[in-house]
Structure formats: C-alpha cells, structure tokens
Amino acid sequence: MTIDVTMPALSPTMEVGTLAKWHVKPGDLLKSGDIIAEIETDKATMEVEAVDEGTVAELLVAEGTENVPVGAVIMRLDGEGEASPKIPNPNPSREQPAPDLIRGEGSSSTPAAPPAPPAQPTPLPPAGGAGGGPSGSRTIATPLARRIAEQKGIDLTSIKGTGPNNRIVRADVDAAITSPPKVSGAGEVEKRAERGPGEGAPAPTAPPAPPKPAAPPPTSDIPHTLEKLGPVRKVIARRLTEAKQTVPHIYLTLDVELDALLKLRADLNKALEPRGIKLSVNDLVIKALALALRQVPKCNVSFAGDNLVVYDRADISVAVAAPSGLITPIITGADTKSVSLIATEMKALAEKARAGKLQPHEYQGGTASLSNLGMFGIRQFDAVINPPQAMILAVGAGEKRAVVKGDALAIATVMTITGSFDHRAIDGADGAALMGAVKGLIERPLGLVA
C-alpha cells in the first residue's frame, strides 16, 4: 500500500514552506517518530517527524524547493516496510510527468495519453506543443487538467502550462475558461469560409500581451552582489510595510532613571548566583511592561475592525536579532511570572530563535511587544507596531546624564523609552498612562518583585 506524505502545516497561518533538507533517501525504512525532513517556514526551520511506518519509495520534492504548498505530496512510502513493485517506464528516455505539487493533482484515475515513442531521446516539449505533430511532441498536462478541459471543450494546445516542465495544471485550465476566447488567424479564415462571402466577420483577435515581468533589480556600475531574500526577510518586509501603511502610529517618549533598578538588579543577581541565573535590565523591563499593561488594561488590546479585543493576560513579544532576521519570541503571562523565571525563559527562547528552532506557539501571538536597542548604544528610536498588537515599547541605552533634583543639578543613569501605539485602539491619554506606569515601576522597582 502506497502512503502519501504531504507538506505539513506547521502553524495556523502557514500556506507554503521551503523543504530545506531531507533526512531520508529512497529505500530507508521509517518508523513513527523518525525525523524525515527540515521545513523552513516564514519564522523558523523545524524538523518533521514520520507519522506512518514504511519504506521510502520516492522523494517528490528536491531539497531547497521553495513555496511548496501545505498539503502537497512531498514523499511516498510503501506501507508495512515492503517495497511495492515498480512498473517499468516504457520510454526511459522521456521523463514522466510528476503529480502537480501546486494543487495535489495527478491522483485522478483518468490516465494521461501515453507519449508516442520518439526516434531518439528528446527533451520534454513545451506544454503548448500540438499532439501528433511531425516532431512527435505532445501536450503535457495533469489528468485532472485534461478531464476538465474535455468537459469544458478547451483545446489544451492553446494553453501555456505553468507547472513543472511547463505542464498544464488545473489553474491554467481554469484561467482559460474565465478568459475571453481567442481565435487564431487560421481559425478565423476557416470561420469566414463557413459564414460565406456576404457575412461580416470580426477581425482576428490579437494575441494576448505577455505577462509583465517582475521589476528588475536596480542596476549600478558600483561593484555589488545580489542576495535573494529568505522567507523570514520576505515576511518582515511585507508585515512592516503593511503596519506602516495601515496602522496609524502615535509615539510617546519618556526619560526614566535607572539607578534604583540597577541596584536592585545587582542585589538580585548576587542572590541568584548559586542558581546560575543572571538578570538583565531587559528582563526587568519585560516585567515592568507586563505589570503596566495590567494596570492600564485599555492598552492591553488589539484592534479588530468593529471590535476591540481586550486581553486578560500580558504576553510580551520580545524582539530578537537572529541570522535570518528579526523574530519575536513570547514570554507568556509575564505579569504573573517572577523575574528569575522571565530571565530563564528569555535566555532559552533567544537561543532557539538564533538557531531557527522556535516552535510556532513560541513566537505567534503576544499582546504587546518590546524592542531593546540600548545594548547597541542607541539612545532613542521609534519602533513599528507588530499587528494585530496595538503597542510596542522601544528601549534605548542607559547613560549618565545631568538631571535636576530639588532645584539642583545631579548625575543619574537615564534611559529613554518610546511607546508606539495604534491610535485606532488606544487614545493618547491611555498611552501616556501606560508610559507613566512603566516609568514608575522602573524608578521604584520593588514593585517588580513584590
């Protein structure tokens, strides 16, 4: 019995993925739980385990193939660990069409027309070639595409295939059905002859304009190289563009004194040293933001059209710079966790993020975000909101500054924080209240451990 293994959906929003690496080869005997492949999603590379047992019959998708749809067959197994007999290829010189990976076609019981044996080995002809021509070419199409074409009276030779090796797939036939009919010049002459000399006839339809090619990369005489965008960078580009175009940002900035927080951090780290835990300023700011969101619930929300989603828990997405691009692992329930637990979880999540091993539940969701560029010496910046969240806190570097205390100048360690708020969901006054709550928790940090 043949078992089809399909591209899994590794997240609720995943539609396509990249088959980064195979861990098996034809002939391998698989058991349930064995690692079969690494799949790269828009956020991470994840290992896929075998569910069924059997012998690997064939790998249908090559390593490095991008945009493989969820549900597409990527591998076939012979069940019960026995290899099924292979039907010899009557024409080994001609590659046999594989099932259409885009829509999972090719499983129909209607067989495709067998190819005529060529006089000598020839490469596959384009899908638009007319069958039975003098060159022996034929139209390459999936069985489902052929069946639909026959039902709708569509001539496959007039369709340009978009599948592998220019194979015609169902989408091509559907496009031909919805497109206006096109009549070639020769066909128009025949129709005029049928109508007779006295009947009017429309002019031959001009061939369709070729699809507009994608914009070429900018040319330059400066020495350079072109790097193809990875899936993570593509998603970052798309989501941040959508955020700036569709979310009305409002920015609120405050200066916060850090000296009390730094003293508390030093005391806590000394106490936690036997447990191997070391707190960072970022860990304490995560806790401060989570508690502030609970104090000002009007900012712990998401805009949803005619509705406002009000969250009963503060899950903080924390920006981490990974080799593949920015990713935001989540500290769930940060408002109820101790700062030592936050530090432990954040360290583990950051390591997994940089290794590309985050699971979907570890980076999808969150009620608000935090981005800290202070460790890079950045004094102040405005962060872009991560929809559907309605706010993000940008944290700058702590530095010694002159401050006024009691009508006298003094030196204090000061950090600038900026909140970006979705003005559709959060009013300026509510955003200001949240920023004030964060400032108060940082400047009087015992509230973080109380």
Structural features:
single chain; 450 residues; alpha+beta; OB fold (Dihydrolipoamide Acetyltransferase, E2P); Dihydrolipoamide Transferase; Chloramphenicol Acetyltransferase; 3 domains; 6-stranded mixed β-sheet; 4-stranded antiparallel β-sheet; 18 strands
Output the radius of gyration.
Answer: 31 Å
CATH topology of the largest domain: Chloramphenicol Acetyltransferase
Uncertain segments are 83-113, 118-136, 180-201
The residue-averaged pLDDT reads: 80
The total tally of domains equals 3
Main beta sheet strand tally, sense and closure: 6 strands, mixed
Strand coverage percent: 15-25%
CATH hierarchy, class of the largest domain: Alpha Beta
SSE arrangement, N to C: EEEEEEEEHHHHEHHEEEEEEHHEEEH
Number of helices: 9
Instruction: Give the % helix.
Output: 10-25%
CATH architecture of the largest domain: 2-Layer Sandwich
Global morphology: elongated
First and last CA, distance: 62 Å
Q: Report strand order across the widest sheet.
A: 9-18-17-16-12-15
Label the structural class: alpha+beta
Your description of this structure?
Helix 1 runs parallel beside helix 2, helix 6 (281-295) packs across helix 7 (339-354) and helix 6 (281-295) packs across helix 9. The protein has three domains: 1-86, OB fold (Dihydrolipoamide Acetyltransferase, E2P) (Beta Barrel); 107-195, Irregular (Dihydrolipoamide Transferase), CATH 4.10.320; 232-448, Chloramphenicol acetyltransferase-like domain (Chloramphenicol Acetyltransferase, 2-Layer Sandwich). It has 450 residues and is α+β, with helices and mostly antiparallel strands. Strands 9-18-17-16-12-15 form a six-stranded mixed β-sheet. Strands 1-8-6-3 form a four-stranded antiparallel β-sheet, with no helix packed on it. The chain has helices at residues 143-152, 170-178, 185-195, 231-246, 259-272, 281-295, 339-354, 360-363, 428-443, and strands at residues 2-6, 16-22, 29-30, 35-40, 45-49, 54-59, 65-69, 73-79, 249-257, 301-304, 307-310, 316-318, 320-322, 325-327, 330-331, 368-372, 391-405, 408-422. Strand 10 (301-304) and strand 11 (307-310) form a beta hairpin. The chain is 25% helix and 24% strand. It contains nine helices and 18 strands. The radius of gyration is 31 Å and the shape is elongated. It starts with a strand and ends in a 7-residue tail after the last helix.
